[in-house]
Every structure is written in structure tokens, then in C-alpha cells.
Amino acid sequence: MNHSDWEFETLAVRAGQLRSAENEHSEAIFPTSSFVFNSAAEAAARFSGESPGNVYSRMTNPTVRYFQERLAALEGGESCVATSSGMSAILAVVLAFLKAGDHLICSNSVFGTTTVLFQNYVQKFGIDVSFVKLSDLGAWQAAMRPNTRLCFAETPSNPLGELVDIQALADLVHQHNSLLVIDNCFCTPALQQPLKLGADIVVHSATKYLDGQGRAIGGAVVGDKERVGKDVFGVLRSAGMTLSPFNAWIFLKGLETLSLRMQAHCRQAQQLAEWLETLPAIQRVYYAGLTSHPQHELAAKQQGGFGGIVSFEVKGGKAAAWHLIDQTQLLSITANLGDTKSTITHPATTTHSRLTPEQRDIAGIQDGLVRISVGLENLSDIQKDILRGLQ
User: Fold this and answer.
1) What is the DSSP annotation of 107-144?
2) pLDDT tens for residues 47-92?
3) Would you say domain 8-30+61-256 falls under CATH 3.40.50.300?
């Protein structure tokens, strides 16, 4: 079907589906490792890439393809490669575009495991890595080198919701003949489409909001037909960080309600953040929807909503933060996010625990910081649960 004139919500429900001979209404799951060819010549043509079609589920599977085509349509990209996790999506991009002697620049306010991947493992292969403040374009400019090939930013950042002007950063990066990769996990294409703002590649942890119910692990890379459709796909074909058909089907179902869920998450998070600012036990609230947020205007400009993540510092440091978390009865104490169920975690000792104290300080991860992924429960129940730990 030609979906070039469809709106976002329609794409989220309809894009990418190709019915089988059974004429099913809901997308089918194809739990098969391999596919049968009509002849040796057809098999040869499929393996060589001369003829399109299924080859082997490590790199081609109908259910996975449905998910890839739908997410590409939502992000405004030409191609998508689905992977086994969000981290494998990032690794696939690194393997596709960097080699020994190249230079990578990453914002210092990213998911802790992303920092560990770049610093502890990517650098082992002779790739230099620099970390800069996300919102400081001058720092990005100063970090540029003749061998800079890739710039990676997570905006909004985890867990403080810091932003960068994507269009301005893309212009800067392209002046240096480098690629800009944006982690769009927190916003999803329902709220932000980095490719339309100048980014070259978008990565996702589909585990989070794309699923929306904490059911499966997966990731995705979105971009053009050449870089993603050939280069990143080539990594997947050889390295095998493959998304399972069942998980792809789960993510397809998640995409169908993505727009509705993100609107609800944003509405709940906004009200919760405004309420938290009124509590004397809270030292500071991090949420771009607040006018007190230093990048509130930028968020309103490049995002279609402020997201569902609210972080705040509790007076009293780690002890107070842990007390708050331990006293909750409704909120789930887990490091996952993007779920219909609200979750609460202490970033300094969970998601960012593998960073050194100095790295956490640079990233703004204080001992009293608490992160809440605001779910879809009644807001008053969430508030009562938080108050229980602040008494």
C-alpha cells in the first residue's frame, strides 16, 4: 500500500504489513530459521542480493520486516534494521562506520551502559572517544578532529532530560564530514523525528516506549537506504545481533498505540513534575515541560511533547533517595522505563553504577537523584506512593 500521504497514527497501525496467502488481518509471526527456494538459481540470486526476498532469519524475516518498515515510516527514514537490543543497535552503528584510527564524539549525559561500551570496549579497537557536554555546541566544535567520523547524542538525555539543538548540531557535524547519530529512545518518533532535523541515523531501544509494556528486548537503527539499508544491514548479516520474530510482533503491537500512550505519559509526567516542585523535601526537579527547565523553549520547539521521564533530587542524598524508593508500594523498583506501569530507580547505583564517581559528577548524576518513568496509573495514586517515602 502507498502510505506516503498517511498521518502518523495511521502509519503506526497500518504501515509495513504484507498479508500472506492466508489473508490474516493481524500481522503473522513467522517462527522459522530458514526459507525454501524454488530452485538452486533462486537460492543463489537471493544470497547474492540480486533478487529480493527471504534468505535466513538471522537477517531476513517477514515479521521483523513488518516492524522495520513501520518504524522507518514513523521516523521518516528510508530503511530500518532491527536488532536484538538497544545496545546492539548502537554497536552495529559503530561497527558499520568506524575503524581503528577514527574518532568518535559522544555526549557525556547518556545511558551509563553506552558510556561503558564506548570507553571500555570500543576504544580497545583503536577508536578514540571524546565526551562533551550535550547542550554545549562550542564543546562539540572544540572536540572535532580531522579523523572524527561519528558523533553520538542522546536527546533528551537519561536521566536528567538535557537536550541539544539537533538541527544546529547536525549542521556543525556535517561541516566536519561526520555523521550524527541520535538516540531517540525517550521521545520516540511520536514526539521527535531527528532525521527531519538533520540527523543521519536514529537508534532505539525498542524495549522501552516502542513496546510500552515491558515485554521484550529489542533495538533498531533507522536512516537511509545506503548507510542503514546496506552498511548497518551488512553488520547484522555477519554479526547476528538478530531480533526474534516474536519480539518483532510484540513491538508491532506496541507501535499501534504509541501515539496515544506518549500523549498520556506526557500529560501525567507534566502534572507530576509540577507537583514535585511544590514539595519541600525535593531539592530540584528535572523535566523539560517545566518553565524552570533551562531548555524548556528548545524542547517545545523540536519535540511534540516533553516525554514521560521525571527525575528529581531528594534532600538528604543517597539515604533519603533509597528511603523514598523503599517506602513505595505501587511504583515498581526497576531500571526499565517506558512501561504502562510507573517505575522508580536510583540512577547512581543502577543505570549509571558502572561509571566512576567523577564520570557521574560530570553527567550530573547526584546521590540524591531519583528517576521515575511515569506510567498510566491514576496520578493521585502515584503521588500518594511518593509521599509515603517523603514523610
Assistant:
1) ESSS-HHHHHIIIIIGGGGT-EEEEE-TT-HHHHHHH-
2) 998 999 999 999 999 999 999 999 999 999 999 999 999 999 999 9
3) no
